[in-house]
Amino acid sequence: MTERGYTLSELAPLVQAELVGDGSATITGVASLPTAAPDQIGFYANSKYHDQLLATRAGAVLIRAEHAQDCPVPALIVKDPYYAYARVASTLHPRERAAPGVHPSAVVADDAVLEADVAIGPNAVVESGARIGRGTEIGPCTVIGRGARLGENCVLAGGVQIASDCIVGDNAIFHSGVVIGADGFGFAPGPEGWRKVPQLGIVRIGNDVEIGANSTVDRGTLGDTVIGDGCKLDNQVHIGHNCRVGAHTVFAGCSALAGSVTLGSWCMIGGQSAITGHIEITDGVTITGMTGVTNSIHEKGIYASPLPAQPVRKWRKNAVRFTQLDAMSRRIQALERELAELRDQIKQDD
Amino acid sequence: MTERGYTLSELAPLVQAELVGDGSATITGVASLPTAAPDQIGFYANSKYHDQLLATRAGAVLIRAEHAQDCPVPALIVKDPYYAYARVASTLHPRERAAPGVHPSAVVADDAVLEADVAIGPNAVVESGARIGRGTEIGPCTVIGRGARLGENCVLAGGVQIASDCIVGDNAIFHSGVVIGADGFGFAPGPEGWRKVPQLGIVRIGNDVEIGANSTVDRGTLGDTVIGDGCKLDNQVHIGHNCRVGAHTVFAGCSALAGSVTLGSWCMIGGQSAITGHIEITDGVTITGMTGVTNSIHEKGIYASPLPAQPVRKWRKNAVRFTQLDAMSRRIQALERELAELRDQIKQDD
Amino acid sequence: MTERGYTLSELAPLVQAELVGDGSATITGVASLPTAAPDQIGFYANSKYHDQLLATRAGAVLIRAEHAQDCPVPALIVKDPYYAYARVASTLHPRERAAPGVHPSAVVADDAVLEADVAIGPNAVVESGARIGRGTEIGPCTVIGRGARLGENCVLAGGVQIASDCIVGDNAIFHSGVVIGADGFGFAPGPEGWRKVPQLGIVRIGNDVEIGANSTVDRGTLGDTVIGDGCKLDNQVHIGHNCRVGAHTVFAGCSALAGSVTLGSWCMIGGQSAITGHIEITDGVTITGMTGVTNSIHEKGIYASPLPAQPVRKWRKNAVRFTQLDAMSRRIQALERELAELRDQIKQDD
Predict the structure, then answer these.
(1) B7: CB partners within 8 A, 6+ apart
(2) ipTM of this model?
(3) From C83, C326, C346, residue closest to B188, measured CB to CB
(4) Sign of the four-CA dihedral A338, A344, A345, A350
(5) Residue C278 annotated in active site
(6) A43 and which of A85, A98, A271, A339 could share a cystine (Cβ 3.0–4.6 Å)?
(7) Span C51-73, mean pLDDT?
(8) Residue C162, pLDDT above cutoff 50
(9) Smallest Cβ distance to B339: which of A143, A146, A335?
(10) Which pLDDT value is given to residue C347?
């Protein structure tokens, strides 16, 4: 606990660290190297911050073996300081949890099932047939729709909406404004307008998934929209209907999948990038920010498309040239041909 | 109803279909051709799935006349199988509706008007002077602002916000997190900062409009923001103040209109595309995904601007060249001139 | 007040205007020049609308001195008509405010502090330790988290979420669906998946900040995310963790800052543009719409990157050429070299 803190000797085994220095010092929190006090621990992972390491007053530093000799304070030697830092920070600063129980202002249907230690916040709503797993916390004004099922130890912030029949695994963290299971975007055009195609599938979310504020995942049309274990979605991400996302794939802010995309595991989708519908992207693909993907990607790697920002006058000239690019290419071809002809002619003249 | 089902003879007239085969079979639901059981109906519209047609175990297939001879099961012959499918699916799987009535936890102002068969969900709020049309359903934690008016048979999911005085037609479907009528983005710059320009108009939405999760439509500055009949907005779409959108125009996910755009009817705006303020786009224009539109479009057609994603090393080289594009163009021009001069010189030499 | 109205003699000193014409006319509202009635006031700032000025029936026009002779009705002569208009419009059309008091359906923690004249709407939630400043209005179904603090005279619409411990200054206007203080996007990759990095900072928002519908500002990792005084954010803007935004910077709809961006004051960020993480942008920078910024900007000015929309057939050819741009550049270089060689050869031949 933060108040009591942990000694370095207690923290070391949590992260399989070798302790160099006095293990009896008590650590109560994490901090960055320049601001850390003697009861706080920091991490060092990037040689750019070497000066900060040399000057730190932290109680200890999580650090790789090859840098430990430069550490002016006790060191916890680990393979991956940032990964270890995440573990230590979570231990020293556990998420404050709501007390179990149903707030009197919440509306819980009679036939909803709440497992042990569930916390339902003020003005939340749990509709008929929903099931909330052990230790899960539902924030204020959050709505769990008919027949939806949440796993254990989930934390849903205030103002989250889970639509009917959707299924969420254990340890989910959904931030405010997340909408799971709204209808996918399906309409058939006809002479009098667009006719709605009923969205009959659900959303199925694995374990250990975190979804950022105001992100949306639409329900499937006939089958389901599936988000694999360990996926992490930043804010304002949009996942269209029928997408299937492999495990441990991450989405930066404002990125979007159109419908029926099959996306591999351990992919990284950059901010404000967009992936068009009905394509497949294999495992381990990274898409940089603001990139548009319109074709399937079968080879692991990094893919990009955006143009760099330029001062507006330079940009304006170049952007106009872009609209002439095909013509430019044909002019180059013509030049190559004419130059070759000229050369031939000169040779003959010689 | 799903439980009872419909015979093929009952379904055929709903979609002006010619039935080929036994009309007495009962159909209880829709499914895709590969998964459909004998009490389910599918559709066939794309020759890419010809194998699935040949192998289907569906109870019937909605299909065009020219493909009907390949259908191994009873066929409902129609002009547009997907459009007919939408109708049949809606009939077999009607949206589950909330029972009429006001949930005791909802807060409805004394002078709000609820027409017959209105359903107001738990913890919803209907403010003073609002009017809700017959058969309309307001989801949990949804807020209808002062003086707002909703038509008949609308379905507002949980967590929707309709700001004061906005007007919505009949048969609207608004998904969770939709915000209608927030202030438009209007500020006048002055020496001490930006001064707010009051947004005094409303949002006026036609009949048969569907709006996806977390989309926003801002109220007008002096006049109104108008969304025409039959428009469909996907998730996280943003419509700025004073826009006027014609009937049956559709917006894919994360697309945006800046302020004061006049957009025609039957347009299709691709995902994550953006249309700059104060321009006009005529009827029947399609904007592909991730396209930026900065000038008015007076001619029907398809418009695009995004670049294709490439492996990052190729992309980096090409993106750098883009910043030199104007210079490249001038070098081509110089080459053309110099080559012509050289040719002239050689001619003279001859 | 709108009902009573103001005489022109009363309005003139509010905007340091020189009145030309009869000051006794009563003005009850604002309108555009073509629609204004004799009890309404308009403004004239753009010579594009000169015909509208000549034909207006408005009760008065806010106008610059050099145009006043063309004004057919009483004129209020000011330096900046639009800025003056904003002031007059706010005076004639004050925002309708909720009556102070706590709605019986709201849930306010016993130890939350509500200063004088606070209004808490139906089904709103104010959690333990929160503090709401004098005259602030909390909309329906809005949630103020544990220990959060709001200044005076703020207006939070319905469905806003302020997470624990975040701090908001005076005169904030937050529209529906705004989420302040959700966890930033921080995960450390490990062999078994992404481990959450606790987000221990808060969001700190200055005075006079307006934030549009469904925008999100994430809390800091160790330090805070900071939005300066007078900033204005349009709808669906995303500000990542640890960003520091200077005073009076404005963000158009759907723009995004990734994490740890330091952005100056008086910047203008265009719609759907995105700024990558860990960079610095100086004061007074304008980023046009749909621009991606991936490097720090140290010089004031306008920056851009998007390509113009083109008819799809032209675009397709040009976009393909873009993927060959580096090769094109090398072909130009080769041509230049070969042409020079040929010229040398001819010279030698001569």
Answers:
(1) B23, B24, B25, B26, B27
(2) 0.96
(3) C83
(4) positive
(5) no
(6) A85
(7) 97
(8) yes
(9) A335
(10) 83
Mind listing the pLDDT tens digit for each residue in C253-283?
999 999 999 999 999 999 999 999 999 999 9
- Long-range residue pairs from A292-296, CB within 8 A, at least 24 positions apart, any chain: A292/B272, A292/B289, A292/B290, A292/B306, A292/B307, A292/B308, A292/B309, A293/B309, A294/B289, A294/B306, A294/B308, A294/B309, A295/B308, A295/B309
Write out chain B in H/E/C secondary structure: CCCCCEEHHHHHHHCCCEEECCCCCEECEECCCCCCCCCEEEEECCHHHHHHHHHCCCCEEEECHHHHHHCCCCEEECCCHHHHHHHHHHHHCCCCCCCCEECCCCEECCCCEECCCCEECCCCEECCCCEECCCCEECCCCEECCCCEECCCCEECCCCEECCCCEECCCCEECCCCEEEECCCCEEEECCEEEECCCCCCEEECCCCEECCCCEEECCCCCCEEECCCCEECCCCEECCCCEECCCCEECCCCEECCCCEECCCCEECCCCEECCCCEECCCEEECCCCEECCCECCCEEEECCCCCEEHHHHHHHHHHHCCHHHHHHHHHHHHHHHHHHHHHHHHHC
Cβ pair C343:B342 closer than 8 A: yes
Average pLDDT over residues C316-334: 95
Q: Tell me: pLDDT of B347 over 90.
A: no
Average pLDDT, chain A: 96
Residue C213 contacts B where some CB pair is shorter than 8 Å = yes
One-letter identity of residue B4: R
Q: How far apart are CA B19 and CA B9, in angstroms?
A: 7
C-alpha closest to that of A270 among A246, A306, A217 = A306
Q: What is the pLDDT of residue A349?
A: 74
Q: Which of A241, A248, A278, A298 is catalytic?
A: A241
Q: Which residues of B touch A177 (CB under 8 A)?
A: 177, 214
Q: Is the dihedral of CA A90, A92, A93, A94 positive or negative?
A: positive
Residue A340: how many other CB atoms lie within 10 Å = 11
- A116 falls in which pLDDT band (50, 70, 90)? very high
Q: Which residues of B touch C336 (CB under 8 A)?
A: 331, 335
CB neighbour burial string for B31-42, b if at least 16 within 10 angstroms, e if fewer: bbbeebeeebbb
At A311 the three-state DSSP class reads strand
| Of residues C175, C308, C311, nearest to B301 (C-beta) | C311
**B321 vs C329: CB contact, 8 Å cut-off?**
yes
Asked if B292 contacts B279 with a C-beta cutoff of 8 angstroms, the reply is no
**What part of A 191-210 touches B (C-beta under 8 Å)?**
193-198, 200
pLDDT of residue A347: 83
